[in-house]
Design brief:
Rossmann fold, six-stranded mixed sheet, 6 strands, alpha/beta, 7 helices, 134 residues, 56% helix
């Protein structure tokens, strides 16, 4: 199973360890599913960590390497304009390029779509339930 994690999942896992988001990353590290990620997603995660959590350049560099090695790096070639929030469209682009089974997010606008092409859009809780991780 292949999934694209929204930026909020990465930020929560990295900035607020011990929660459900961290469980999702650990599940990927343990091979329960495969992660698809793109450079725009990595850049957004780094930007949020720098702006909202005052991470220094060295910490951001470590996060960038971790995210790059966490999953399959995809290179979307088609730009989408489906959702109002531009970074949300980058998530859809990554999922479409990777042919992901799931997008995992807490974003209401994205969840309201329910799916994009063949990709189901689910909450973190629903995804962990699918993985049978509690």
């Amino acid at each position: 199973m292949k999934a694209v994690l929204d930026t909020n999942i990465y930020v929560s896992a990295i900035a607020l360890p011990g929660g459900q988001a961290e469980k999702a990353l650990l599940a990927a590290l343990h091979g329960h599913y495969r992660v698809a990620i793109s450079k725009p997603i990595i850049h957004e995660v780094l930007d949020v960590l720098a702006r909202k959590f005052a991470r220094d350049p060295e910490a951001l560099a470590r996060v960038a390497v971790f995210l790059d090695e966490l999953g399959t790096l995809v290179h979307p070639r088609k730009t989408l304009d489906i959702l109002k929030d531009t970074p949300d469209n980058r998530i859809l682009e990554c999922a479409a390029t990777a042919r992901a089974h799931y997008i995992v997010t807490g974003d209401r606008a994205m969840l309201a779509l329910g799916h994009y092409q063949e990709t189901r859009i689910v909450t973190l809780r629903a995804f962990l339930d699918l993985l049978e991780i509690h």
